Please model this.
Amino acid sequence: MKIKDNYWSRRKFLKAAGVAGVGSVIAPMTGLVNASEKHATVPTRPFGKTGAQVSILSVGGTVDTASNQLMLRQAVKWGATYWDTAPSYRWGRSEAGFGKYLDKYPQDRKKIFLVTKSSAWTPNGMTKDLNSSLNKMRTDYIDLYFVHGISSISEMDNDTKVWAEKAKREGKIRFFGFSTHSNMEECLLDGSRLGWIDGIMMTYNYRLMHTDEMRRAVDACVKAGIGLTAMKTQGGGQVRSDSETELDLAGRFLQKGFTDAQAKLKSVWKNQQISSICSRMKNMTILMSNVAAALDKTQLSARDTELLQRYAKETRAAYCAGCTAICESHVEGKAPIGDVMRYLMYCNSYDDYEYAAAGFKKIPGKIRRRLTHLDYARAERKCPQGLPIAKLMQEAKRKLET
Model:
């Protein structure tokens, strides 16, 4: 069947898949049922030099896990045992949800690689956050503890190192590292040189993974023995159906039995240097689809990868690559462009207005009010993606302040 012969039916399918959730599709689910009958579980990979083995699929706790206990139970049964959260996720309900599960099924604690984070960035603040997380999640230790969302390695000073070593000696954490949404390549390269980072979580997807800068950064971390977790792997949401490339891409994957969302996961898993993918799985449908993708042996071909890269190039002006050191330095006045773009992505691509608006409103009011009055012309000229930054700042303020 030619793509153009089935244009409207495929568009309807893509729209339906987007409504149902990231990666939902019937065929892989059927395969998952058969696989589960044979007790197949999500594969594992080594996490850097830590000695830990982690599931290649991580349950992202940016959802209300307190109301998703059945999904967590099924995640354990299917082997998705890398669980990631933070105190800020769902205003604490995410950590509380993990705690509710571990309180009911304490025997599963040893199966779960538990990750949480601190945004305090000071020893006293991290101690307070850590103790609170331990209490909420009903556990004596955290497997991997992150400093949350750094944009420069300067935020990881010697006091941070001393604090991490102390927390390890006390048995409160096993491993330590950081997450980063901004200037990822620089943070990874600089982190690889510190000598005391066990793990890093970074934005990593089919749009970013093939650049020379990202390849060098990942190679440096692997050489240093750092475990790597990929997040934001969908690269801005499901493939649209507005161009021939998009239709060719979506149609090609559908013919192979999986969606474009599952294909994007596979494109990251193809790189054995990545230990795990953190996915925001808010319901059983998405969990089933993602586990099915992890179990499926079908590999992306060179042509598949080429199409993803072509699509990334054609749609790059719709995706913020997180290189905020470039754009923010070319605006006179404080403009947290990277943060605003991330919140807009949560709203537009994840269809999560509540979470996006809450994050946006954490930006000080004085800065928010100035966002639409700043001159972004130089920043737009310097942006490697060619983003219409001024227009997007207006869109964010209009959508997220209402």
Notes: Residues 3-303 form a domain with the TIM Barrel fold (CATH 3.20.20.100).
